[in-house]
Give the backbone structure.
Amino acid sequence: MKPDDKTPPKNSSYWDERFNEAGFAYGEAPNAFLRAACENIPAGDALSLCEGEGRNAVYLALRGFRVTAVDFSAVGLAKAEALAARHGVTITTVLADLADFDLGVQRWDLVTAIFAQPASATRQRLYSSLQQGLRPGGAFILEAKVEAHATANDRYPGAAILTQEIAPLSIALAQEQSHELNEGRYHVGLHDTVQILAFKHHAL
Ligand SMILES: C[S@@+](CC[C@H](N)C(=O)[O-])C[C@H]1O[C@@H](n2cnc3c(N)ncnc32)[C@H](O)[C@@H]1O
């Protein structure tokens, strides 16, 4: 974490405790932006960063993707596996801190970051490796909370900063909006978020 992160990230114990509560903190239904943004993306290898309890990974698996879900909450990933089993699909879970996680080389057809808000240094390192980690034509889908006046050294920057961090991916959509969320117990009501859909160019 950089010393100037305004809102320090929570550790894995915090998330384990949240996910130990009954039910699903952000619901069982996939994030609405993810669902809309991946509608025309062909199934392939998908990586879900900060997956949590599995709602998005399971949706992608049901869509035919081979899904790898990364998170540092063992409790969240156990619930993700149970949710996948309940829906009759398989997902691969990886218990890891994103600070130590590597996207690999031309490994993914889709990378998602839905309310994944790690420390700014971790985010910048990972997002700058998207071009390397995605296959040609591969997609990146993000929805994240935004804080007014956040800089690149904060955890909640807006579209202008995030689109720079994911360069040279080509931006199909990058928008900020205040909109109603209805995702489980913790994402309810009006939230300011940024939504991004971007692609790695096909090789010429
Ligand atoms: C707000 S929740 C979102 C969960 C899920 N993406 C969703 O939308 O339902 C944030 C998630 O990020 C995970 N997380 C936060 N920091 C992380 C890090 N440094 N490495 C891995 N996972 C992290 C937490 O464990 C938690 O599951």
